[in-house]
Amino acid sequence: xxxxxTVKDDKPVTVLHVPFxxxxxxxxxxxxxxxxxxxxxGYLYFPVxxxxxxxxxxxxxxxxxxxxxxxxxxxNGWALEEVQMRRRKAESFSISWAxxxxxxxxxxxxxxxxxxxxxxxxxxxxxxxxxxxITLSAV
Length: 139
Fold this sequence. Notes:
Oligomer: single chain
Structural class: alpha+beta
Order of helices and strands: EEHEHEEHHHE
């Protein structure tokens, strides 16, 4: 059964307050004056009782793939969301890229990504994914 996935580039973005881990503040990477051209914001949703350590073990297997990419900054963290009176966990990630979408698309089409994305999308308890591509501008 395919996992429901939503890419909402032309719709309002879901906003969650997420304490990013393992450390750091993503604000410099998200600063409209930085060299970041596009940022991907994504959520992997899980039941509330999911084993966070097991999930993070899979996420950690994907980190080297991002480290080999052209990503400028990568942050992740957990949030607890309530949707239609039902609570669920969300593993959130932020990946910032230079050059608008070209480097992000090159990564998404790479063999390295295709061979390793199962570490994220193959997590048995993941129920839904969402991702957004945003660009920031100074106001």
